[in-house]
Amino acid sequence: MSAVIEAWGLVKKYREVIALDGLDLTVPEGSILGLLGPNGAGKTTAVSILTTLLEPDAGTARVAGIDVLASPHEVRKRIGLSGQNAAVDEHLTGFENLDMIGRPVSARAQPSRSRARIVGS
Ligand SMILES: Nc1ncnc2c1ncn2[C@@H]1O[C@H](COP(=O)(O)OP(=O)(O)OP(=O)(O)O)[C@@H](O)[C@H]1O
Ligand SMILES: [Mg+2]
Q1: Of 13, 23, 93, 106, which is the most exposed, with the fewest CB atoms less than 10 Å away?
Q2: Please, which pLDDT band fits residue 88 given cuts at 50, 70 and 90?
């Protein structure tokens, strides 16, 4: 099975803080990845780079086979991102949150529900 996310040597510094210090990652297609770590470990920084919201200082990554630095818009066409602090988050289940984010992308309720059910239930 091919990798849907690959990262090589991701480095991100905020002044003197090294948020990421050479992160390598390979995530097989069809799998669910949990990023666990204490506050400040760099989880949000890693997700921000992989979703093209932030550029690394070094290293690169491919998502769905596309380089996040060379073609960020092509990556964005293929992914969805649900934030942890959306206004209605605390009133929604994990499934409902993913379904809400997935609707505009899939345009139909059923594909969005099916995909949300895999991850969110
Ligand atoms: N915009 C920023 N400016 C300066 N420092 C930042 C910035 N964003 C993150 N940091 C610092 O980078 C480090 C990694 O932060 P990050 O938010 O990626 O961690 P996290 O694992 O998501 O933490 P949490 O569990 O609290 O969400 C922390 O030391 C944080 O203070
Ligand atoms: Mg975070």
Answers
A1: 93
A2: low
Q: Which tokens hold the place of 61?
A: 């990554």
CA of 41 to the centre of ligand 1 (A): 7
- Name the residue of 10, 11, 35, 43 whose CB sits within 8 Å of the most ligand 1 atoms, as the mutation to test its pocket: 43
Q: Domain range holding 97?
A: 89-120
pTM value? 0.88
**Whether residue 15 is found in the same domain as residue 56:** yes
The strand ranges marked E within the chain are 3-14, 17-28, 58-63, 66-67
Contact 95, 116 (CB under 8 A): yes
* Whole-number average pLDDT of the chain: 89
Q: Which two tokens stand for residue 18?
A: 């090294």
Q: Which ligand is nearest to the CA of 45?
A: 1
Which residue is it, tokens 């099975």? 1
Q: What is the CATH number of the domain that holds 44?
A: 3.40.50.300
Which numbered atom of ligand 1 lies nearest the CA of 20?
Answer: 14
- Judge whether residue 116 has pLDDT over 90: no
